Amino acid sequence: xxxxxxxxxxxxxxxxxxxxxxxxxxxxxxxxxxxxxxxxxxxxxxxxxxxxxxxxxxxxxxxxxxxxxxxxxxxxxxxxxxxxxxxxxxxxxxxxxxxxxxxxxxxxxxxxxxxxxxxxxxxxxxxxxxxxxxxxxxxxxxxxxxxxxxxxxxxxxxxxxxxxxxxxxxxxxxxxxxxxxxxxxxxxxxxxxxxxxxxxxxxxxxxxxxxxxxxxxxxxxxxxxxxxxxxxxxxxxxxxxxxxxxxxxxxxxxxxxxxxxxxxxxxxxxxxxxxxxxxxxxxxxxxxxxxxxxxxxxxxxxxxxxxxxxxxxxxxxxxxxxxxxxxxxxxxxxxxxxxxxxxxxxxxxxxxxx
Length: 354
Fold this sequence. Notes:
- The protein is about 60% helix and about 10% strand.
- With about 350 residues, the protein is of the alpha/beta class.
- It folds into two domains: about 5-175, Response regulator (Rossmann fold); about 195-305, Four Helix Bundle (Hemerythrin (Met), subunit A), CATH 1.20.120.
- Helix 10 (about 245-260) packs antiparallel against helix 11 (about 270-285).
């Protein structure tokens, strides 16, 4: 393997603040990057991602965080650009934990807080090259697997994804010549898992609702908006996957979900039909491979959610009881204070009379 040469890589650098953009570009140049395309507005950024295939994307997220996060998610979901696995390095001046959490949860590979040194950036880039995290897929998230306990049993296995940056800077010609197939195969795995997860999300919601009814518990109200969004996204992804037979089933699923929103629409029969259509939609995509293999996973998810709901309900009930007790105590103390004040007043009147 040849020596690492960053000059082989192409970098797309987005930053709306020109002085920050120059600073970041200088840092990248110091590391050895030479092919750096700089853009300063979101329209140019999206166009560059759609029309080019950079090996590294560096984007400032502080000023336009919501838009940048949406762009990263769109890339990860194959909605923008030709490589959903391009390495994303986000920068920010913000030290707000909520902002950094969102920057991580959108699917970026790393987040760097400004100001930063060239040495610090070099260490992070080296990690991206030599030790890129595998991806994990859920119904809503596609991105690096940041779970801390790798030994714990999980229903969301990680997926090894292409690292074109590594192949490029290390001059791995064999990997680069097969990059298109490499990306295609990994993306097919990601898409299949995400479709399974979306179908499962609907099934779990229905199972949880039916379980609550069977146990005569109020539980959590069925989130029809979430089921509707998931069903529509399922259909969109099946259209993109060019699976018309599965799209037909997804359309029937959408009609059924809409019927649940009508007066008296939420019945056991309607819920079970919705569940069956969600499972059938995935089966049509997966050539008959049903969600039966996910039965244990669905059961565990429902059980865990029920525990969380029960714990939350118990916590809410306890807090309510504590507040009522505190209110009752305050009321009793207030009455006692008033009585004491009355007694003091009576004593004063008696002393005055004497």
